[in-house]
Amino acid sequence: MVVVEQKKRFALFLATCDSEFVKKTYGGYFNVFLSTFGDEGEQWDLFRVIDGHFPDEKDLDKYDGFVISGSPHDAFGEADWIVKLCEVCQKLDDMKKKVLGICFGHQIITRVKGGKIGRALKGADMGLRSINIAKDNEKLRGYFGDEVPASLAIIKCHQDEVLELPESATLLASSEVCEVEMFSIGDHFFCIQGHPEYNKEILFEIVDRVLNMKLIEQEFADKAKSTMETAQPDRILWQKLCKNFLKG
Q1: H or E stretch including 141?
Q2: Catalytic residues, which ones?
Q3: pLDDT at position 131
Q4: Which residues contact 203 (CB under 8 A, 6 or more apart)?
Q5: Residue 2 exposed, middle or buried by CB count within 10 Å (0-12, 13-18, 19+)
Q6: What pLDDT is attached to residue 136?
Q7: Predicted local distance difference test score (pLDDT) of residue 242
Q8: E-state strands within 37-150
Q9: What region holds the Glutamine amidotransferase domain (predicted)?
Q10: Which is nearest to 157 in space by CA: 236, 71, 217?
Q11: d(CA 24, CA 34)
């Protein structure tokens, strides 16, 4: 008898629209996420939740894991699609399905689990930031597979943050500008305030775009870009961490 191994199947809940730059350069954010978190032989499905596109409830069980992207919208908002996303996350929590929450996704999971989110206490954060990783955490040791780094560089791009962790959460990283940079809940929710999937050109294009929209000052834009003059995000380690969480 030939045993056909089932393909691992993942879903991306995209909570942002593709910018013209991302469309032209990468064919859309879906491909950015796929190249960061995907592996050969897997099936990845895209749901543009920002447009109200969700999987049927009966299909949730077909997936091994989910990724919730960042968004220009507030995770504490009451738009129909945000409320629906919270409801779906609650179901995924009940099912103990693996969910990787990034930026907006990290905040959505906080909301669903009873934590508190709001405007960042120290203001918006854009650019490369070094975050301090919790010491002696068994879970992180498992995900990194060897030495857990004391700190990791990640690209940040947010004006909201987690103000109070859900009671069931374990804090995994913090920084001088943001107390909750990363946390987990059980073995099925893993949340990161920064963007493991971003690179320098994606960040710079966002900075230019929000500057043109007069949402930030020139000085703030210059400062954000200057963080990447001589440094890079720890992309390989972030990939390892996220993939081992999703697929471990």
Answers
A1: helix 138-144
A2: 103, 195, 197
A3: 97
A4: 126, 127, 128, 155, 157, 224, 225, 228
A5: exposed
A6: 82
A7: 97
A8: 43-47, 65-68, 98-102, 116-119, 125-133
A9: 56-199
A10: 71
A11: 16
Strand order in the sheet with 151-158: 43-47, 9-13, 65-68, 98-102, 189-192, 182-185, 169-174, 125-133, 151-158
DSSP 195: B
What's at 197, amino acid-wise? E
Total-model pTM? 0.96
- What is the spatial distance between Cα 200 and Cα 165, in angstroms, rounded to a whole number? 30
Residue type, 106: H
CA 44, CA 38: separation in Å to the nearest integer?
8
Who contacts 177 (Cβ-Cβ below 8 Å, separation ≥6)? 120, 122, 125, 129
- Can you read off the two tokens belonging to residue 215? 């949402």
Helix, strand or coil, per DSSP, at residue 117: strand
Rounded distance between C-alpha atoms, residue 78 and residue 142, angstroms: 37
